[in-house]
Input
Amino acid sequence: MDPKAFVAGMSALGAGMAMIGGLGPGIGEGYIAGQACSAIARQPESQANVTRTMILGIAMAESSAIYSLVIALLLIFANPLLNKV
Output
């Protein structure tokens, strides 16, 4: 078995597993938006505060998905492990 092919295959598998990290933030962001809409419907005068807090929470949740995407792209396109074999 060619070691470079093995490392490339395992890197592709690792990239796919890294993108599982995008599943949680997607669910969480939908939940945050739904709860914000519910809060605004109950108390419309607090829309500015709820919206600001919601956007901050979504940005924090999205950062972990972006880190997962960066790791996956590094493993696929700029794989540092292929040079070691």
In short: The chain is about 80% helix and 0% strand.
